[in-house]
Write a structure and sequence with these properties.
A hairpin with a 4-residue loop joins β9 and β10. The protein starts with a helix and ends with a strand. It has two helices and 16 strands. The protein has two domains: 36 residues; 213 residues, no CATH class. The strands form four sheets. Strands 6-7-5-15-9-10 form a six-stranded mixed sheet, covered by helices on one side. The chain has 263 residues and is of the alpha+beta class.
């Protein structure tokens, strides 16, 4: 029976060692998840609209218009790609492609193919925190990156001129779970407002980090704004306001954009 007691001791020891290994593995897993999962807001995995910008090396056919679509094709490389304002021959020449963004009753892919130089997305109602990450890159590019600049454009039918307001920009590249806060792309603060329309104490002006006013509220205000000089002459009469992203890509195959509703 002595040999049996010896085997039982060995078996108990093996069980203890296995159990200890399981405890270590289980306890270390949450720590790894916590360090690799940034949380832009209350819950990074909470409700959001996901947009995948998929890089293509050739022009795709069709517009890919769909209310349930969460992807837009973009050029893998925008080198030698430019766009202008078709209604103004004297407008600046922009590098990259134009992604126009509007806001309506629901998220809707208005034009899911920007490989031809133009894409369009409609956001749902509300205001959003925006985060961007590169999920895949092309191995053919040594230093792939993507630059996105947010622009507000407005037409002054008094001076017959187009105005362009740079409201923010981000540069993103591939990194392990590297999310970039791009919320500033969709807000206008007093420094960016070249018309001096904003004061900074508006009820819907977000003062935290001087984020500013939601871009579509800002454009709505400009549209109804009619400032005059001391003699009563109209200074600005802005119309045909629009918001777009100037998208410049160099080798990123998948860029993910997440829109999180603000409380």
């Amino acid at each position: 029976m002595r040999w049996l007691r010896g085997k039982l001791k060995i078996l108990v020891l093996i069980i203890i060692l296995v159990a200890s290994t399981l405890v270590v593995n289980v306890s270390s897993k949450p720590n790894k998840q916590a360090s690799d999962s940034p949380k832009p807001g209350i819950d990074f995995n909470g409700a959001h609209f996901n947009l995948n910008l998929i890089g293509k090396s050739k022009e795709m056919p069709g517009d890919y218009l769909d209310s349930d679509r969460h992807a837009m094709f973009v050029p893998l490389d925008t080198v030698e790609m430019f766009f202008t304002n078709p209604d103004d021959l004297e407008s600046p020449v922009w590098e990259g492609v134009k992604i126009e963004i509007t806001q309506g009753d629901e998220f809707f892919m208005l034009d899911g193919d920007a490989t031809d130089g133009y894409g369009a997305l409609q956001l749902g109602p509300g205001k959003y925190n925006v985060y961007i990450a590169v999920k895949a890159k092309s191995p053919k590019y040594e230093y792939p990156k993507t630059d996105i600049t947010g622009w507000v454009q407005a037409f002054d039918n008094v001076g017959q001129l187009w105005y362009y307001i740079d409201v923010g920009d981000v540069t993103v590249s591939k990194g392990k779970n590297k999310w970039t806060d791009a919320t500033d792309l969709l807000f206008v603060n007093t420094d960016e407002d070249t018309f001096d329309f904003l004061i900074g104490n508006e009820i819907d002006y977000i003062t935290d980090h001087d984020l500013g006013m939601w871009v579509f509220d800002y454009m709505s205000g400009l549209d109804s704004w009619a400032p005059v000089d001391e003699e009563g002459n109209l200074i600005y009469d802005l119309s045909d306001l629009a918001y777009f992203w100037q998208f410049v890509n160099s080798g990123n195959k998948l860029i993910q954009v997440r829109f999180y509703p603000m409380n």
